[in-house]
Amino acid sequence: MKFGRWSELGCGILLVAVVSACSSAKSPVLPTPAVVVKPASVASVVPTAQFEKRAQEEANAAASARASAIAAAAAAKPAVAVRKSEGPSLPAGPAVWLYVSPTSQAYYSKTGIDGAARSAVWETFLRKYKIPHIRVTSADLLGQMPSHSVLLSPSNAALSLREMAAIRAARERGVSVLSTWLTGVRDEAGEWLGFDFMEKALDVRVAGNTEDAEEDNFMIVHGDNPITHAVPAGTRVWLDRVKDMLPLRLVGKNYAANIMDWSRAYSHEKKTGVITFDEQKQANGAFSRIVNLGYPEPVWMSADPKLLEAIAHNALAWLFRQPDAYLSAWPYPHSSGMVLAVEGGEDVAEVDFEFAKRVDSVGAKATYFLLSDSMAKSAPIVKRLQKRGHEIAYFGDKFDGFKDQSRATQAKRMDNMQKGFDDAGIKLNNGGGFVAPIDSYDKVTEELLLERGIGHYLSFMDATEARLPFFAKGTTDVNSATIVLPRTQPGPEEATEEGDPDEGMQNFLEEFSLSQSMGGLSVIRIPTQTILSQPHQELFFEHLQQRRGKMWMPSAGDVAQWWRGRAKISVRLEPNVKAPILVVSVQGSEPVRDKASVWVNLPTSTSRLRLESADMDDPTPPVVSLDRWRSGILLEGLDPGEYCWYLYFDDGVSGIKN
Hints:
Elements: E1 6-8, E2 14-16, H1 50-73, E3 82-83, E4 90-91, E5 96-99, H2 102-111, H3 116-128, E6 133-136, H4 139-142, E7 150-154, H5 161-172, E8 176-180, H6 196-201, E9 205-209, E10 218-221, E11 236-238, E12 248-251, E13 254-260, E14 273-281, E15 287-293, H7 305-319, E16 324-327, E17 336-344, H8 350-361, E18 366-370, H9 375-387, E19 391-394, H10 407-423, E20 433-434, H11 443-451, E21 456-459, E22 470-471, E23 483-486, H12 492-495, H13 501-517, E24 521-527, H14 534-546, E25 551-552, H15 556-566, E26 569-574, E27 581-586, E28 597-601, E29 607-613, E30 623-627, E31 630-634, E32 641-651
Parallel strand pairs: 5-6, 5-7, 7-8, 8-15, 17-18, 17-24, 17-25, 18-19, 20-21, 21-23
Antiparallel strand pairs: 1-2, 3-4, 9-12, 10-11, 10-13, 13-14, 14-15, 16-28, 22-23, 26-27, 27-32, 28-31, 29-32, 30-31
């Protein structure tokens, strides 16, 4: 997550000057935003019971939909040009118009809320990254906003009818909007209006807040997303609970983050969206983009400023329609990954081989973590599993945890474990994989795994803040690195053990879907000789079948090998008078084997990305369409070296070329 100042491209849009991981330039230090004094007394912005009413409505709707589902399942510009007006000088070029509503300021003052915090945070941020901006307090001036500007509305909870009309008119002209927390829920007299303005003008529905869930204090970020791509998939971002200014539960067309507890526990009864985004075509043909941040500015005081700044930076870049480039977490065409971890606390039986056939049928491969104590008996079936392409890995010597055992005891157990596999004639690739029984391991366990050259191991969710693989601490050689795969959600058997099994299974599938939409890695644990009912197995495999084109489902070893190869590729986007330049560096001694891809944010939904090599001897890789906002550049087959391509964005409708 490295980003720097903004500069202007020849095509007239803004571009962030990205700092490359291999650049000689040092990464910018990201200081905490200016401290804002927390109010001593905060009055309620939303009337009592309003959120409870909305939450109950959402719960009833979710329960109804759920019953049906179960039944059916049976970018720094150095200077900004200004134009004269009767008021202050206004930016003529791309700029952020920070609208600090006097109606909201008056309301906050009357109720004892420090309204200055909402604008101070943004002014500090915009100055820090030298993003062109102007602070506006008059609704009349919003009528002079150019369509290529971004309107930033910081927690403008109270708005007059005139202000609401000005914001609507700006969107109709094609102005893009970044709105935070509550907007226009009260009138100029401070009377409650409800969420109608947010739904109609900002394309978002408020389903409640986190008042009824004291543990839901973490924003879980989506990775490889147009709005939040600088933050790894599934990253936890702490959001403090500011009295009467709690994060919202938002419902929108596209999500960039969800509000959950530390464990990311999912419940179908709660709406969890906290950042939404979309783009709408207006009546006059103009397109207006919108990003809604469902948290207020005071949370910046206690959250990790680097993470909130990265999200704000990405969001503004997308709203400004500036190109952005980032290396995808997964091989094309996949946008998420899954590892099916079959853990063998019992002997491997014929039923497990039949289960493996079902795994094959949906285009997946499983990783069987097995005990060495049972390997001699299980070896015939294990070898058949290997022939079908499934991975065999270590589950320890016996079904007993490693945590808090002495180093000598753990080392002896690992020696016995490896010997048991060798004696049974079971050979493992790349050092093999490992998971500790009942997730019982400690730092000693991890050190011993590295010493023995274990290629990968499964960890508990506390090993990382994100939902992606990572390099084990102490790894020195990327080619033989030990990769850690975090398990961040329960498996289907765990989900169906308590309460209504059908409800539990449906909840598991919905949580699984959310993890996929975040672009993360889902490690799904199922025991050998599974007791998961046949109907629930059918639901599980149907779920995998429906997603096989977008969710990568290889063995754990293949994921680890992909992560090693991906680490040899770096990407940066540089401003240039002619066109932005994409610089891709491939390290090592072998060409890119997997379908690594660079994802590029497009200026418009009709843009078509075209590459032109800066060096006539460099190859021009294929370009594919990913969605309405992004294209992908496929890097497979590129030899080690550095490559530079100019990025051109041809308008697919008008034929205009930038």
